């Protein structure tokens, strides 16, 4: 009862306009269909190269940890870019590798004529290193370029001078937003430091709807979520991490001369 009351008290339309919301896991047709009809502007996909033809495809898990299944269906980056380009929505691309994938993804983006103000590219500094981020920043000067700083969070809180040096270096590479997990410790101190220094922050790894609402309070520039929020009629399936999606099913109960429709949640294989 309390949670339903909260949903009425905090409707989707009351979410702050200054925060960018990102629907992650748009790696499959079902999530894509939901995203395209939603009010969420940004989608996030996970991009890897197909192990045989090196085409950019959408898949969260590595082929090493989760080998390619002969019956596996996947979306290509080209398909997603084509769908997004026909709308006024925008795309966040998470590069799951470095090297040649940067060039391949740039070719796909250019082929669809997507303005770089609608483009957001995420990776970690070990994968892309300075050269990879530098290429992207020169090619797409209006894009958001983001890197994970979970590894720096303890340093930001305990030895801020050293952390600031690293962040300034990453900024020189072209990185203009930093990614932090909602599960990180000392988030309040982290945000105080980042706000003081003028760095933009995106929060990810938010487990549920209540945590999503709390994540808005530090006023990050953006929040990335599965949007698995039935209270707002969002039924995000997740990214397929560890080989699983979320799936909802409807069931009906007859009680007190009324038929009530309920939705139940279960995990299903993503392959």
> What fraction, in percent, of the residue positions are helical?
25-40%
- The CATH superfamily is Phosphatidylinositol (PI) phosphodiesterase
Q: How many helices in DSSP terms?
A: 9
Q: What would CATH call the architecture?
A: Alpha-Beta Barrel
**Quick one: CATH class?**
Alpha Beta
Which H/E pattern describes the elements?
HEHEEHEHEHEHHEHEHEEE
CATH topology: TIM Barrel
**Oligomer type:** single chain
Count of individual domains: 1
How would you state the average pLDDT, rounded?
88
Uncertain ranges: none
Q: Structural class per helix/strand content? A: alpha/beta
The biggest sheet amounts to: 8 strands, parallel, barrel
Distance between the termini: 36 Å
Our Rg estimate from Cα atoms comes to: 20 Å
Question: What is the topology, as strand order, of the major beta sheet?
Answer: 1-2-4-5-6-7-8-9
């Amino acid at each position: 009862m309390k949670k339903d009351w909260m949903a009425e008290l905090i409707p989707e339309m009351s979410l702050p306009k200054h925060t960018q919301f990102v629907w992650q896991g748009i790696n499959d047709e079902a999530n894509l269909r939901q995203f395209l009809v939603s009010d969420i502007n940004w989608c996030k996909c996970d991009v890897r190269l197909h192990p045989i033809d090196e085409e950019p495809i959408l898949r969260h898990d590595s082929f090493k940890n989760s080998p390619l299944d002969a019956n596996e269906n996947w979306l290509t980056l080209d398909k997603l870019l084509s769908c997004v380009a026909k709308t006024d929505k925008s795309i966040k691309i998470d590069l799951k590798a470095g090297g040649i994938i940067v060039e391949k993804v740039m070719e796909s983006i250019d082929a669809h004529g997507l303005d770089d103000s609608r483009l957001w590219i995420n990776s970690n500094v070990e994968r892309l290193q300075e050269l990879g981020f530098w290429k992207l920043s020169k090619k797409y000067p209006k894009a958001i370029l983001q890197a994970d700083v979970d590894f720096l969070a303890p340093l930001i809180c305990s030895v801020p001078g050293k952390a600031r040096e690293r962040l300034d270096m990453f900024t020189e590479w072209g990185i203009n937003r930093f990614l932090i997990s909602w599960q990180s410790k000392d988030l309040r101190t982290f945000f105080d430091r980042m706000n003081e220094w003028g760095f933009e922050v995106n929060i990810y790894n938010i487990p549920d709807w209540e945590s999503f609402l709390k994540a808005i309070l530090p006023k990050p520039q953006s929040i990335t979520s599965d949007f698995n929020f039935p209270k707002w009629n969002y039924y995000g399936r997740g990214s397929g991490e560890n080989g699983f999606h979320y799936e909802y099913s409807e069931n009906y109960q007859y009680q007190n001369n009324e038929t009530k429709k309920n939705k139940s949640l279960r995990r299903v294989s993503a392959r």
